[in-house]
Known about the structure:
This protein is α/β, with parallel strands linked by helices. It contains 14 helices and eleven strands. The strands form three sheets. Strands 8-7-9-10-11 form a five-stranded parallel sheet, with helices on both faces. A four-stranded parallel sheet has the order 3-4-5-6, with helices on both faces. The protein has a two-stranded parallel ribbon with strand order 1-2.
Amino acid sequence: MKSKGHEVLVISRNKEIEHILLKEYGIPFIDRGKGRKNIVGKIFYFFKALFIIYKHSKIFKPDIILSFGTPYPAIAGWLLKIPHVSINDTEFASLHHLFTDPFSKYILTPDCYKKNLGKKQLFFNSFLELCYLHPKYFSPDPSILSLLRMKENEKYVVLRFVSGEAVHDVCRSGLSLNMKKKYVNELSKFAKVFITSETELPKELEPYKMNIPANRMHDAIYYASLMIGESATMASEGAVLGTPAVYVDKIGRGYTEEEQIKYGLVWNFGNSLEQQAVALGKGIEILKNSKAKLEAVEKSKILQSEKNDITAFMVWFIENYPESVNIMKTNPDYQNNFKK
């Protein structure tokens, strides 16, 4: 957008590695602070974040506000009479939908999205992970193997644990400490295990922590033999990069289901103890299959060829708004002009 002469203002929550990445890529941004862990804290932060976005939007005066299903910019846009376009791929984020959708002009979702959001909803034929992992924008760097102290063709697993502190994760229960240990012990029999976690790891699991720069994570996923854990996003990242993925969570996602049913790249499991055990068994089965990685790479090529370049699509959508909305409503196949 900036290379085309547009002005862009980025406002970012200080969450996990967001600010680290923005600084590494030289993207100027405004900090809207850290979120809160408890319900009372989340309510307080709601008004704080809303004020920050409202204030800076009033000064910047954008033509359009874009967010990934976030209520603060949606409400700020509504108050300032600036159209807010929401992008959302998480069906069960009920609180986000409650406070974002009514204040958004339009809501963009993948066409595998399982929820009907009404007249504002527009579907795109892609996955959000292709915003940054499409072959046009991502080229894997094999030097990650040296950072991980791995040899070429040596198997390793990326094991992901989440914090459960996001709004859409409230009341969810993930892998217990004992189950996490079991995953590490069993998977280690077939491959080297690296853990990436949103929360601090217990001492027993600390030796398995993946210590690499934040912007090298997708290189690590690309060369892995298996992506397994509690993150739908990272499971989908594995899928589009050609790494078999096992996703374990109470509630699935439309996009991970499509990546399983249509492309055979993700396997979805619930988070009951029985399902967690079955998921582990599936992970071991993949590691024992010498052809699993090669097959996944070929399947990912099919996925990439069938899905649109979501970044190119979004640039077109914003530049041509609101006429782009009319085109998407009357001729949704127009978006197929943005294929690989």
